[in-house]
Automatic annotation (TrEMBL):
It is a multi-pass membrane protein. Residues 8-251 form the Nodulin-like domain. Keywords: Membrane, Transmembrane, Transmembrane helix. This is Nodulin-like domain-containing protein. It comes from the Eukaryota. InterPro entries: MFS_trans_sf (IPR036259), NFD4_C (IPR056555), Nodulin-like (IPR010658). Gene3D superfamilies: MFS general substrate transporter like domains (1.20.1250.20). Belongs to the major facilitator superfamily. Phosphate:H(+) symporter (TC 2.A.1.9) family. The keyword Transmembrane applies. The keyword Amino-acid biosynthesis does not apply. Its main location: membrane.
Length: 575
């Protein structure tokens, strides 16, 4: 049995490695300026390439379809070769080894972006299959490491050639393939999954706490330890790899289980922890409780006009008093109308798109996490236009590291909910607050400090949203439908990438045409580089205003869903 447990933790470590080295879309800004110069394209056309990479996320369903007919390890290698082909050909284009038309480069970006979703599917399946009792903690931890990909690739690039930007494409092509080869043996030797006893579940939770502490150390290491010196950078990169290897010591922790149970677990408990608030047992009790309540009070009545169900006065007992007081106002009607009765109720796609809660959630994500992702795609041009080209790699590391911390923070509410409980949609609203502040800060001052602070805030905010989204989708619209519903939700990513990126690119090119530009000696066609604060000033203002709209949307979502969260927590405590 101990051998089986060791193999299970080996799989978790392999999943961490896969996530850490396959977030290749986050370093697009590192080489985008050189790609633009070689292709001789405008900023708008460059934005379309970034959109193509993000559009791959909308094709995530294809990986699930492939799993129906292919073993897991083969899906992983298909993803690796998709990235090898997509990024590898782009690398050859930048080196002028091959010359391809624009639409072919667009397809290569789409293929490379799709590879990321296939890797994510492999990681999700591994976590769910091997950690059924603590799958939320496994998912939260591994997904967080996807946020450090850009920082790791930045270290690797500096270690090989600090003056080259096209080296990122070479690394994007080969490192995921090498990671897949290293991870193959643990995946092939997956142990049988047996139900765990209560003590074993708590023991697993303790190990996850230790792994989260190690993850935090890794994040701080990548954030604060860096150098542009070639030899020093190689030592630092070696230290980062060592931190990723350290979780292999988990089997040793398992062998010391008796000591931990005797000395630590007796005084440290993690009751009720978990990344997903709605688990199967709690959800079943919640449904039974509400069924008993329904048998005692009337929840709906039907009007004589045949318009459908309307809320009756007796519903005050059921959904609380939050929606009663301001029925005459527009805001009161928006908050009180068609509220969720309970968490975890299954919503099919046709039911999902009819709910106001879903569109509030969609808009909050669209104006929060997605706008942060588009900002990261434009970091190269933003730094270049402000005269901080040498800071590009630093900004990429900042965004990556703080995105990582944001993802880790998304699990924190569950560890503290026994002492302080707050609806997860409320945490979502809080997470959106830094985004508009960051955009207005960067717009107000284009100096290095403001740019770094704004990038860190945007990374922290978007990282939290990316990691918490699966959980919120599961809680609001049902855990069994989360796969389909979440794929519907993330359609906002390619849409936002196109809309926000096009807005930024249009303003950029207009400013360049108006005279705020200089020609680069690397340009062979009519492409120009816009220089000065005006290149992105209007873009930052627009993005900041849109982020405020997303914040308002998230607050409305919180007010509408808070009664359901409070009832669920009360019922869970009773159980």
């Amino acid at each position: 049995m101990t051998g089986y447990e060791s193999r299970k933790w080996m799989i978790l470590v392999a999943t961490i490695w896969i996530q850490a080295f396959t977030g290749t879309n986050f370093d697009f800004s590192a080489y985008s300026s050189e790609l633009k110069a070689v292709l001789g394209i405008s900023q708008v056309q460059l934005n379309y390439l970034a959109t193509a990479s993000d559009l791959g996320k909308a094709l995530g369903w294809s990986s699930g379809l492939a799993l129906m007919y292919m073993p897991l390890w083969s899906v992983m290698f298909v993803a690796a070769f998709m990235g090898l082909f997509g990024y590898g050909i782009q690398w050859l284009i930048i080196l002028d080894f091959v010359s391809l038309p624009y639409f072919v480069v667009f397809f290569l970006c789409l293929l490379a972006g799709s590879s990321i979703t296939w890797f994510n599917t492999v990681c999700f399946v591994l976590c769910i299959k091997n950690f059924p009792s603590n799958r939320p903690l496994a998912l939260a931890l591994t997904v967080s490491f996807n946020g450090v990909s850009a920082a790791l690739y930045n270290l690797a690039a500096i270690s090989l050639n600090p003056s080259s930007t096209h080296i990122y494409l070479l690394l994007n092509a080969f490192i995921p393939l090498l990671t897949s080869i290293v991870s193959l043996i643990p995946i092939l030797r997956q142990p049988p999954v047996d139900p765990l006893l209560s003590d074993s579940i708590k023991h697993e939770q303790l190990i996850f706490v230790l792994l989260n502490f190690l993850a935090i150390i890794t994040g701080f290491y990548l954030l604060f330890v860096h150098s542009n010196d070639l030899s020093t950078a190689r030592v630092i990169f070696g230290g980062a790899i060592l931190l990723l290897v350290l979780p292999l010591g988990i089997p040793g922790i398992i062998y010391a289980r008796d000591w931990f149970q005797r000395k630590v677990i007796s005084s440290f408990t993690l009751q009720g922890s978990g990344f997903l608030l709605v688990d199967d047992d709690d959800l079943e009790f919640h449904r039974e409780f509400l069924s008993r309540e329904n048998s005692q009070i009337s929840v709906t009545s039907y009007g004589v006009n045949g318009d459908g169900p309307t809320l009756t006065l007796s519903l005050t007992r059921f959904i609380g008093s939050s929606g009663d007081g301001d029925e005459g106002s527009c805001c009161g009607k928006m908050i009180g109308e068609d509220q969720l009765f309970m968490l975890g109720e299954e919503h099919k796609a046709e039911m999902l798109v009819k709910r106001l809660d879903f569109w509030l959630y969609y808009f909050a994500y669209f104006c929060g996490g997605t706008i942060g992702l588009v900002y990261s795609n434009n970091l190269g041009q933003i730094a270049q236009s402000l005269g901080h080209t040498s800071m590009t790699s630093t900004l990429i590391t900042l965004y990556s590291s703080f995105s990582f911390f944001g993802r880790l923070l998304s699990a924190a509410p569950d560890f503290i909910r026994l002492k302080f409980y707050f609806a997860r949609t409320g945490w979502l609203a809080i997470a959106l607050v830094p985004t508009p502040i960051a955009f207005f800060l960067v717009a107000a001052s284009g100096n290095e400090a403001a740019l770094q602070a704004g990038t860190a805030l945007i990374g922290l905010s978007s990282g939290f949203i990316f990691a918490a989204a699966v959980s919120i989708t599961s809680e609001l619209f049902g855990p069994n439908s989360v796969g389909v519903n979440h794929n519907i939700l993330i359609t906002n990513i390619p849409i936002g990438s196109l809309v926000y990126g096009f807005l930024a690119a249009l303003i950029y090119d207009n400013n360049a045409a108006a005279g705020f530009a200089t020609f680069s000696i690397q340009m062979v066609n009519d492409s120009v580089v816009c220089m000065g604060r005006k290149c992105y000033f209007s873009t930052f203002i627009w993005w900041g205003c849109l982020a405020i709209l997303g914040l308002v949307s998230s607050v409305l979502l919180f007010l509408r869903t808070r009664p359901a969260y409070e009832r669920f927590e009360q019922n869970r405590r009773i159980s």
